[in-house]
Design a protein that fits this description.
The protein is an alpha+beta fold. It contains 19 helices and 12 strands. The radius of gyration is 22 Å and the shape is globular.
């Protein structure tokens, strides 16, 4: 690492503080030593930045200059063939193949599944009975994944998939993300052994589904079927291991992130009643059964979603590997080192977002932010492939739930984030109570 880039804490302190509260920690370090600065991530030294100018340099760098950050700590969860972990021409080919189902008309064809899943899970709420909002949003998001991505529709099989997939993702022990040494099986009762058992069960279930679909060859619009049918430029098809890894990537990227963002949106809306009134008014103007495309175009609804994604970005740091020496402002980062952009820093910049810790969707109606100032899904050639789908799902779920229900927070005190696995979500999951349900 260049000696003239300011350093921060030692490896132990940096790992612990980043693991517990990266939002506060990264901003504190930047304020203390400047930007860019050195830190530690998964046992590796890394140069971090929250400056839009430097972020642009990283995100617009050529594919042969920066690559994925892949010291091996995510392979057990995602698989070595995951789009998140591969590079070069292979990454380009896979991304080109996987993009169409998650964008445009194909993505919009899943509107009925999204709305149906939201209303199905909402039926479990009882008037005056407390519930945890993030549990509901996780159930909605997982239901959408199983039906739209894996293509499972039979209720019993949906339940089996959800139970098995959730067991795998929930048992991935957060400290093992940052400390690879913890990815060791030390006996059947240890955290890593439990995760390994659950992941094997999930792998077996998904492999069986892939095999059954290959035999049946019945077609369909779900993403698994589209993977089975897709062909590269040379006519080749995806292998079963490739499909397995990409399905788990979509599961992790699409389930946790969307569920957490929705839970935060519900929290901030109910902490800011005037904002909730404005959103309810905009939704009401579309009538009782709005067209999903009309919902997706609503400006205030989009502003609410963006502001929820800004305040606590689900992934607070996006790392990259430097393949060839690159400039980061006045600094030269040598090949083999690591750089990272920090949504947690840039999203809290008061010069860009006045009163940055306040929930103010109106800021999105008066200013357009660049892809280097608002980066909840990363950016550049490695931007989250499911970003458009996640935002679309957020809008449709909020539009399905809010006009039909009225809630209150059980505790109006500020809620802090806590680590789940790769992601961070609201501590306690946001406890709410249903006050009123509109008759069907």
């Amino acid at each position: 690492m260049p000696l003239d880039i300011p350093g921060s804490d030692n490896r132990f302190v940096a790992t612990i503080r980043f693991g517990v509260d990266p939002y506060t920690y990264l901003n504190e370090v930047r304020q203390r030593v400047g930007d860019p600065f050195e830190n530690w991530l998964a046992g590796q030294r890394i140069v971090l930045t929250g400056e839009p100018e430097y972020i642009k340099q990283i995100l617009t760098a050529d594919a042969d200059t920066v690559a994925s950050f892949n010291p091996g700590h995510l392979k057990p969860l995602l698989g070595e063939g995951s789009l998140i972990l591969i590079d070069g021409q292979r990454h380009t080919r896979e991304r080109r193949l996987l993009s169409p189902p998650l964008h445009g008309a194909r993505m919009r064809s899943y509107a009925q599944i999204i709305q149906g899943s939201a209303l199905l899970r909402a039926r479990a709420w009882q008037i005056s009975q407390p519930f945890v909002m993030s549990h509901t949003t996780q159930a909605i998001s997982l239901d959408v994944i199983v039906k739209a991505v894996f293509g499972v529709q039979d209720p019993e099989r949906v339940a089996t998939f959800e139970r098995t997939l959730l067991a795998a993702t929930e048992s991935f022990w957060p400290p093992s993300i940052l400390i690879r040494l913890l990815q060791t099986d030390l006996g059947p009762l240890t955290p890593w052994a439990k995760f390994a058992r659950n992941k094997r069960a999930a792998d077996d279930l998904v492999r069986a589904e892939i095999a059954a679909r290959r035999i049946a060859a019945t077609g369909g619009d779900d993403i698994l079927q589209l993977m089975l049918d897709a062909r590269y430029e040379d006519g080749g098809a995806m292998t079963d291991p490739q499909i397995l890894d990409e399905l788990f990537t979509l599961l992790l990227a699409g389930h946790e992130t969307t569920a957490i963002a929705l839970a935060w949106a519900m929290y901030w809306l109910h902490r800011n009643p005037d904002t909730l009134v404005c959103l309810r008014r905009e939704l009401a103007d579309l009538g009782d059964d709005p067209d999903p495309e009309a919902v997706a175009r609503l400006p205030y609804l989009e502003a609410v979603c963006n502001e929820a994604l800004r305040l606590y970005p689900i992934i607070p740091l996006v790392p990259r590997t430097v393949v060839k020496p690159m400039q980061l402002g006045p600094y030269t980062i040598p090949a083999g080192d690591y750089v990272g952009i920090c949504p947690a820093i840039v999203h809290a910049n008061p010069d860009l977002y006045p009163d940055p810790h306040a929930f103010k969707p109106e800021r999105w109606l008066t200013r357009k932010y660049t892809p280097f100032e608002f980066i909840p899904f990363g950016g550049g050639i490695r931007r989250c492939i499911g970003a458009a789908f996640a935002l679309y799902e957020m809008k449709l779920v909020l539009a399905a739930i809010l006009p039909r229900h009225r809630f209150a927070l059980l505790d109006d005190r500020p809620i802090a984030p806590q680590r789940r696995n790769l992601t961070l979500g609201p501590t306690g999951g946001i406890r709410m109570v249903l006050i009123e349900r509109k008759p069907d």
